[in-house]
Automatic annotation (TrEMBL):
Protein name (record): C-type lectin domain-containing protein
UniProt cross-references to InterPro entries, sorted A to Z: C-type_lectin-like, C-type_lectin-like/link_sf, CTDL_fold
Domain C-type lectin: 18-128, 137-242, 248-362
PROSITE patterns: C_TYPE_LECTIN_2 (PS50041)
Annotated source species: Oryzias melastigma
Pfam family, one: Lectin_C
């Protein structure tokens, strides 16, 4: 059995950390600096990151890594981080989407199909609750525009309902009275699907946005994002505006080499710190984003099963509290370690130690 005692840096600092750079540069100059000296301009994945980012920034405005992609059409995203939009699996109503450039948000109809609609209209909406197992979905009957609806869900629940899996669960779990209210009394409700042409500098697919709706203008003249005084985001002129900026330092790396679990462990401990440990949902989403560059169907993590004691553990000595197993029972076999799926829902699966897979190291 392979144990190592001691603290992992990334457990203390999270999967990544922000670095405030007190030098005034254009967005492109800031991007080059971050890539040369750290990892990239700051990527923001959730409201926890927003708080960390605002604590890091000493002055505002300050560049972050979001830039408008002028060479491609707008793309659909789900509001909830970690939920990917699959254009081949949708519930669009007939002749939808018919976006004329202003219909960038999505409504759920009474027959559970989708229509695109302007984001600035006030509509009822459905929130999703990650932590409340007794009631995951909440119909909010006070109409708000899409951005305010998203903010309400994030402050009071988890996010707007996002992804086909959640929509299917909604249909299966809501009681008859709630379904009747949705169908008879409320024609449309906002869900967490939206469209924009913005992309992160590190090419990650994170859909999180925190625009200041009082000042935000989605136009080509101001195509880069910066922090505002109140900690939200606004568009700035990429080439003319020279302001400080925030980089991020990534503490997780995908190794595109196929090795056994033990070989992967020794490699990480020799060149970096250890095989990666995942302690919560935010960690899971950060790590699974990197699987898109993997060359194997599964990627090793720092999970290991002990036959002697009969439980799973992290080689960093962290207790396995957060779990993301593909099936509930992952026990009763020796010489097994934990890997993450590179596709689908990126669940954890048990694999024999001698299989050769890509792997995640923590820095």
């Amino acid at each position: 059995m392979l144990f190592v005692s001691g603290e992992l840096c990334f457990i203390k600092c999270c999967m990544y950390e922000y670095k405030y750079i007190d030098s005034k540069m254009t967005w492109t100059e800031a991007q080059e600096y971050c890539r040369e000296n750290h990892t990239d301009l700051a990527t923001v994945t959730n409201m926890t990151d927003v708080k960390r980012l605002n604590q890091t920034a000493k002055q505002r405005p300050a560049w972050i890594g979001l830039k408008k992609n002028t060479i491609s059409n707008k793309m659909w995203h789900w509001s909830l981080p970690g939920v990917s939009f699959n254009k081949n699996k949708t519930h669009w109503n007939m002749h939808e989407p018919n976006n004329d450039g202003s219909e960038l948000c999505v409504l759920l109809t009474k027959d559970l199909t989708w229509i695109d609609d302007p984001c600035n209209k006030d509509q009822r909406f459905i929130c999703y609750n990650e932590t409340n197992t007794s009631q995951k979905f909440h119909l909010i009957e006070t109409p708000l525009n899409w951005t305010n609806a998203q903010r309400y869900c994030r402050e009071n629940h988890t996010d707007l309902i996002s992804g086909l899996q959640q929509l299917d669960q909604l249909n299966q779990t809501w009681n008859d009275s709630m379904k009747e209210k949705l169908v008879k009394n409320i024609t449309y409700v906002f869900i967490g699907l939206f469209s924009d042409a913005w992309a992160w500098s590190d090419e990650s697919s994170f859909s999180f946005r925190n625009w200041d709706q009082q000042r935000y203008r989605d136009n080509g003249q101001k195509g880069c994002a910066g922090l505002t005084d109140d900690g939200m985001w606004n568009t700035e002129d990429c080439s003319e505006q020279k302001i400080p900026f925030i980089c991020y330092e990534d503490h997780v790396i995908l190794i595109n080499e196929s090795r056994t679990w033990e070989e992967a462990l020794y490699y990480c401990r020799h060149y970096y710190n250890d095989l990666v440990t995942i302690t919560n949902l935010d960690d899971q989403r950060w790590v699974q984003e990197k699987t898109k560059n993997a060359t194997t169907l599964f990627v090793w993590t720092g999970l290991r099963y002990t036959c002697t004691l009969g439980f799973w553990f992290w080689v960093s000595d962290e207790v396995v509290r957060y779990k993301n197993w593909a099936s509930p029972e992952q026990v009763n076999e020796c010489d097994m370690s934990g890997a993450m799926e590179t596709g689908g829902e990126h669940k954890w699966v048990k694999k024999h130690d001698e299989e050769k897979l890509n792997f995640f190291c923590s820095k």
